[in-house]
Amino acid sequence: MPLPEWVPIREDLRGYEPYGAPQLPDLISLNVNENPYAPSEAVADDIAAAVRAAALGLNRYPDREATELRERLAQYLGHDLTGDHVWAANGSNEVMLQILQAFGGPGRTAVSFAPTYSMYPEYARDTHTRWVAGRRADDFTVDPQAAVELIKAEQPDVVLLTSPNNPTGTALPLATVEAVLDVAPGVVVVDEAYAEFRRAGTPTALELLDTHPRLLVTRTMSKAFALAGGRVGYVAADPAVIDALRIVRLPYHLSAVTQAAATAALAHADELLAQVDALREARDELAAWLAGRGYDVAESDANFVLFGRFADRHAVWQGLVDRGVLIRETGPEGWLRVSVGTPEEMDAFYTALMEVDPR
Ligand code: PMP
């Protein structure tokens, strides 16, 4: 619904809809790349106990610096990182907005490579940052030479690289990240929301942090960690870059409840991440099954697969919805994205797709 004329919203925001995938809780949800395995009763008990302890202090503001949580996140990341190298916020969405607030802004430019995460242009819009989208190659990789040329031409203050990329699943070789770092005049952000799902041999940009002070690597507890509802994302970077983000954050942005829940969850990292191997296997099976049925399938290092191509992808998406399976109509025209679910959920998807699109 468009806003009524009398609402005095910023002119450049007029006509936009709030972003978000449909939320249809009765359907099998393979549309927002969540971990289908909920935390166990034991983990839930520990989270509840930590939240209860925090509740007894809720008359006070939380630790503005989220000190303990940041230290735990640094320990989880390894690579000799400390709490000073890490910043946390309400999902990596908020982290990314803070990055654009601190390093983008009026008169500044952000560059990314499409197709990619559809929220980036919105962070740019909301922070009045000029948005420039380069193109990925037909196989959804980023051509380092083309990236370098675009960055030399645009001189962006922020480069957003996504690895593995959403919605294509494509991971970037470190050589591409390094080529970008060599020419980018501003910060380079590698969004690694799906890093834990990457295939053996696919590197993480965390390896480049100690030699590249303008590199930021963002992560989230929403995906592999099975904590999407907890809303915790984070970034690793040079402590001076983290200090820049602290300038734009709202005071007390991360509630005591969130900090307690996330810290308790991190103590169970091994258990929460235990299903990641199974999900990676299921992802490879899913890709092979789709390819076996003759679809084009994008190579994926994430917990979802982009496949196509359909003359009328909306009809296929709707046909699946009608059969109780919700996937995502996103990415380039003709393609659809499906997240990896439990074996039962995958069976339901396979059955429904064979009905909707018998080949
Ligand atoms: N980055 C990418 C590439 C994503 O796909 C998502 C979630 N869909 C996010 C960031 C944001 O996730 P969250 O805010 O839950 O951490």
From TrEMBL:
Gene Ontology molecular function terms on file: histidinol-phosphate transaminase activity; pyridoxal phosphate binding
SUPFAM superfamilies found in the cross-reference section: PLP-dependent transferases
EC numbers for this chain: 2.6.1.9
Gene: hisC
Aminotransferase class I/classII large domain sequence ranges: 26-352
Subunit (UniProt): Homodimer.
Gene Ontology BP terms: L-histidine biosynthetic process
Protein known as: Histidinol-phosphate aminotransferase
InterPro entries in the record: Aminotrans_II_pyridoxalP_BS, Aminotransferase_I/II_large, HisP_aminotrans, PyrdxlP-dep_Trfase, PyrdxlP-dep_Trfase_major, PyrdxlP-dep_Trfase_small
Family: Belongs to the class-II pyridoxal-phosphate-dependent aminotransferase family. Histidinol-phosphate aminotransferase subfamily.
The species this protein was found in: Aeromicrobium camelliae
Catalytic activity: L-histidinol phosphate + 2-oxoglutarate = 3-(imidazol-4-yl)-2-oxopropyl phosphate + L-glutamate
This protein's UniProt keywords: Amino-acid biosynthesis, Aminotransferase, Histidine biosynthesis, Pyridoxal phosphate, Transferase
